[in-house]
Amino acid sequence: MIFLLSLIQGMWVVRWEIPDVPSALKMVEDAARCGITDIFLQVYARGEVLYPSSFIPRFEELRTREDLLSLVLEEAHKRGIRVHAWLNLFYTWSQAPFPPHSHHITRKYPQWFVADRTGRSIFTYSIDELKKKGLPGYFTSPFSDIYEYLLKMVKEVLSYPVDGIHLDYVRYPAPYFGYELPARNYFYSRYGVDFFQDPLISFFNHRALEKMHMEEKKKRITELVREIRKLSRGKILSVACLPDPEEAERLGQDWVGWLKEGLIDYAVPMTYTASPEWFRKRIKKYPRDKVLPGIGGYLTDCSIVKKEIKITKDMGFKGWVIFSYGSSDLTCLQSSTQ
After folding, report:
1. How far apart are CA 164 and CA 84, in angstroms?
2. Which of 217, 242, 278, 289 is in Cβ range 3.0-4.6 Å of 252 for a Cys bridge?
3. What's the pLDDT at 44?
4. Is 55 helix (H, G, I), strand (E, B) or coil?
């Protein structure tokens, strides 16, 4: 467990906000000027990375071959700013046509994606279907070989002097996913039941089966968090999470349990709102020493951001994280962080 004595005043930095060297240097300068102590830098998202990887393609938004991860780390550390590698784990592609290059996960490993209750892979969903169902994009299955793939990626990232690992999309896209073949095989090995091929399935208690199925999905994701915890000893491990713990748990994201077990140092719930009153009501339920409320700077103006920052301070939280660098007016931070 990592304990920090200083207040964490963080901001998320999305990949398209620093596509080249000048924008990356400006971002670090802006962070220092605004009193930011921690940069949560998107390093892995949509199956692509910020740095030159041995097996993963680089962000399509990049306009340089320079190693921007190394550059940001060097410049931020000069200014005493910590850098957390922000990793979007199971969210593998957005609501967009699949990328053209053949070495992307969507091209090489279509069998890794989650399937719904009918056994249909999310990989076959159209973009319109994703939108109609309120799904952010295409997710891979924790029971597939993506598990080892992600651990290999984390090891690469940890070869850099990052100060922390920040996990995002450590969950399923919706409760009705988790019926892909690897998950079904795992469930069968544990309980002797196949959801689609067992001739006696109609005689089972389906509510009990669903509960066991949810527990197994949650355990599998927790196992991955535990493995990343082992790999990242000595680093700060945090998770961007859904603000409602019960909803998060239904999607396999048991962030309350992870905090209790000491698997993560901080939870960063995405409490994005333009209503300071809603913000106050939501975060008052959280433990003050282990939660960094997320502030949706992109939703509102400077005055609301300042009010929400003040609420976190008045309630005794150890810090906050604003989303995001390029979509928020950071001028308000110059006075709020003093």
Report:
1. 4
2. 217
3. 98
4. coil
Q: Residue 330 has what DSSP assignment? A: G
Residue 228 has pLDDT above 80, yes or no: yes
How many angstroms separate the CA atoms of 196 and 303, rounded?
Answer: 54
Parallel/antiparallel/unpaired status of strands 137-139 and 91-94 = antiparallel
**In 3-state terms, what secondary structure has residue 45?**
strand
The mean pLDDT of 199-220, rounded to a whole number, is: 77
The average pLDDT across 143-159 equals 98
DSSP-assigned beta bridge partners for residue 115: 121
Q: What is the pLDDT of residues 47-74, one digit of tens each?
A: 999 999 999 999 999 999 999 999 999 9
Q: Tell which wins on pLDDT, 208 or 156.
A: 156
CA 91 to chain centre: 8
Residue from 272, 336, 281 nearest 309 by CA: 336
pLDDT range class, residue 155, cuts 50, 70, 90:
very high
Spell out the domains of the chain, with CATH numbers in brackets.
8-336 (3.20.20.80)
Q: In sequence order, what are the residues at sequence separation of 6 or more whose Cβ sits closer than 8 angstroms to the Cβ of residue 233?
A: none
Q: Are 28 and 72 in contact (CB under 8 A)?
A: yes
Q: How far apart are CA 20 and CA 165, in angstroms?
A: 23
95 Cβ contact partners less than 8 Å away, ≥ 6 residues apart:
127, 130, 131, 135, 136, 137
Please give the C-alpha separations between residue 287 and each of 29, 114, 138, 192, 269, in angstroms, as whole numbers: 32, 33, 32, 40, 12
Whether the CB-CB separation of 300 and 332 falls below 8 Å is answered with no
CA dihedral 219, 223, 228, 230 (to 10 degrees): 130
What are the backbone angles phi and psi of residue 156, rounded to the nearest 5°?
-60, -45
Q: What angle do CA 299, 331, 277 make, to 5 degrees?
A: 40
**Summary mean pLDDT of the chain:** 93
